[in-house]
Amino acid sequence: MVIPSFAVGRTQEMLYFLRKIKAERRIKGFEDFEVYVDSPLAVEATGIFLKNGMECYDDDAKELVKKGINPITFPGLKLSITSEESKAINFDMTPKVILSASGMCEAGRIRHHLKHNLWRPECTILFVGYQAIGTLGRALIEGVDEVRLFGEPIEVRASIKKLAGISGHADRNGLLTWIGGFENRPTRVFIVHGEDTVTETFAQTLIDECDLDAYAPYSGTKFDLISNTFDYEATGIRIEAKKLKKISGVFNRLMEAGQRLIGIIKKSEGMANKDLAKFADQINSLCDKWDR
User: Fold this and answer.
1) CA torsion sign, 126 to 131 to 137 to 141?
2) Cα 8-163-16 angle, rounded to 5 deg
3) CB neighbours of residue 94 within 10 Å
4) Which of 78, 171, 193, 248 has CA atoms 20 to 30 A from the CA of 119?
């Protein structure tokens, strides 16, 4: 399972849930599965959470701490720092969970993990955060058949899932409660975070239900707070989903052959050095032939 996760907050929240799953031994047959946090920033953030638990945790997590239980660490948790450690994760075929950034799959190490696992039907990609329009994560959730990673087309054969209810933002009612709590009402409200249709709808809600002067500007709009006037009002530009060509099934055969080779290499440990050297020479010869 590959989980694209935001490094600060979301990753630690997922570790909390994974610890509970492991403690209750809910994964039958693989109770001791390993969990990799593959993001230097996420590793640093997790360290801060561990040092400042009583300030960072909610009441349930604090109760665990009082019982001597660390709510975000557990046996089998592995932290990946170097690029070599990150690369090694995908050469280990044992079932595992990989938490990696970025959360919307637009950059970072997560793209490497997707390249290695999207084409494998036995894998699951689990999204635990909002995916903006135009991002790779959004395309996967909407059911794209293939994507391009590092210049290479990859067919999507893994199971794509989304865990609802995991959000770092307040919902509509939460925002209405928050804005209704001001003793001095704002004279103007700008809704600047969210999809166009959602921000426009919420702006109209503030106008109708709260009698507020609300506006949802497009990116690039300039407003002068001193003169209380617009210097420039941008026009929205629709972001279209990318259309990719259908990938050949023959390429999938090649990828599967590569995975089989990796498995054979792993099983070769302990063979005579002479045989290992011969095997390595044959592989290198094949790579030299096809490395164009």
Assistant:
1) positive
2) 45
3) 7
4) 78
For 106, other C-beta atoms within 10 Å of its C-beta total 17
Examine the domain organization and report whether 142 and 203 are in the same domain.
Answer: no
pTM as predicted = 0.67
Residue 237 has pLDDT above 70, yes or no: no
Q: Which two tokens stand for residue 124?
A: 């699951």
Long-range (24+ apart) CB contacts under 8 A made by 144-148 are 144/241, 144/244, 145/244, 145/246, 145/247, 146/244, 146/245, 146/246, 146/247, 147/114, 147/118, 147/244, 148/244
Assess whether 149 and 200 both reside in one domain: no
Q: Is residue 197 part of a domain?
A: yes
Give the burial string for 158-189 (b: 16+ CB within 10 Å, else e): bebeeeeeeeeeeeeeeebeeeeeeeeeeeeb
Torsion angles phi and psi, residue 285, rounded to 5? -65, -40
Burial class (CB in 10 A: 0-12, 13-18, 19+), 127: buried
Q: Which two tokens stand for residue 102?
A: 């970025």
**Do the domain assignments include residue 243?**
no
Q: Is the pLDDT of residue 244 over 70?
A: no
pLDDT in tens, 8-65: 888 989 999 999 999 999 998 888 899 999 988 988 988 888 888 777 788 888 888 8
- 100, 119, 118, 120: which is closest to 110 by C-alpha? 100
